[in-house]
Amino acid sequence: MAKLKKQKLPYTQIANEVLCSKTLSWKAKGIYAYMFSKPDGWNFASKRMADEGNGKKWEIRSAFQELE
């Protein structure tokens, strides 16, 4: 997966292109927003993300596949 680079701001800005995409599910858009809110170098392991939310590893992995 490509590295995410963002400005250091106290809030997260998400590109409209991602949020308005008709090819991405709402799940993938939410995962993208969550991932983009994390600092550079953060470990995007599906198990860790599933443990931090109320999702399952396979759900996170399927969102990763959509985003790739």
Folded structure, characterized:
With 68 residues, the protein is an all-alpha fold. It contains four helices and no strands. The protein has helices at 16-19, 26-36, 46-52, 57-67. It starts with 15 loop residues before the first helix and ends with a helix.
Key phrases:
49% helix; 68 residues; globular; mainly alpha; 4 helices; single chain
Overall 3D form: globular
Estimated structural class: mainly alpha
The N- and C-terminal alpha carbons lie at a distance of: 6 Å
Our estimate of the beta-strand percent is: under 5%
Sketch the major β-sheet: none
Our Rg estimate from Cα atoms comes to 12 Å
Q: Work out the helicity level.
A: 40-55%
Q: Unreliable runs, pLDDT <50, ≥5 residues?
A: none
Element order, helices and strands?
HHHH
- The beta-strand count equals 0
Draw up the topology in text.
Elements: H1 16-19, H2 26-36, H3 46-52, H4 57-67
Q: How do you describe this structure in short?
A:
With 68 residues, the protein is mostly helical. Helix content is 49%, strand content 0%. It has 4 helices and no strands.
